[in-house]
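In the design runs reported in the main text, the only information available to the sequence generator was the tokenized backbone. The following block is the verbatim input for one such run; it is reproduced so that readers can re-run the procedure and compare outputs position by position.
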């Protein structure tokens, strides 16, 4: 009589075993992801000096920050890393004038907003050179991005329309920033973010507590 083999008659392969364990692995990865703390800031100058100090203090408290210069790595994909920042449960944003004029920084800020719960996920620190509290000064940021769009658009029209990969995406980004910067800066200016000095002098105590509360949610 022909004997019909059952599925359990075969030894489980490593691939199948790996597949069966993947939900647990996925849970671990999700838990790790939900505890990640990112920092978004403009490189160079006072902004980076301040971030270096903030990073050092929080690390001494056992608060590990994911930071591009340390965690992106050689040949790491910049856009993918910035998108990951945008999805982060906690994002410390050190906002400076340079930040609000940087395509990369603004891409991160827009991504944070697009992923929802902007107020809950962002932990802003406003550096002294940020001009968002006066409406006339805020308008200048809108004007800045409108000028960037016009300048790039004019430059693109000066060459053949063929094979402009990357340039079109850039102008789309500038346009998205222009469309959202008024709302984003309005949200930021309404938050009591404390001054950079208050944060520094308290060893970022309020910031640390706020992050801890968010991670416990």
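Verbatim output:
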């Amino acid at each position: 009589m022909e004997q019909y083999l059952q599925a359990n008659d075969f030894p489980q392969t490593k691939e199948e075993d790996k597949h069966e364990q993947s939900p647990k692995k996925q849970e671990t990865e999700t838990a790790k992801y939900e505890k990640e703390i990112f920092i978004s800031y403009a490189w160079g100058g006072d902004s980076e000096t301040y971030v270096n100090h903030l990073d050092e203090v929080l690390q001494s408290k056992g608060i590990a920050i994911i930071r591009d210069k340390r965690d992106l790595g050689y040949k790491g994909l910049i856009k993918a890393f910035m998108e990951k920042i945008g999805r982060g449960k906690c994002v410390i944003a050190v906002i400076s004038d340079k930040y609000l004029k940087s395509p990369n920084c603004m891409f991160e800020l827009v991504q944070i907003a697009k992923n929802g719960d902007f107020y809950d996920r962002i932990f802003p620190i406003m550096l002294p050179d940020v001009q968002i509290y006066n409406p006339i000064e805020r308008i200048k940021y809108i004007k800045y991005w409108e000028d960037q769009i016009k300048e790039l658009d004019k430059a693109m029209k000066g060459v053949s329309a063929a094979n402009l990969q990357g340039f079109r995406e850039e102008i789309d980004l500038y346009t998205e920033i222009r469309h959202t910067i008024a709302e984003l800066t309005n949200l930021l200016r309404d938050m009591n973010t404390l001054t950079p000095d208050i944060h520094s002098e308290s060893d970022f105590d309020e910031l640390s507590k706020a992050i801890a509360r968010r991670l416990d949610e």
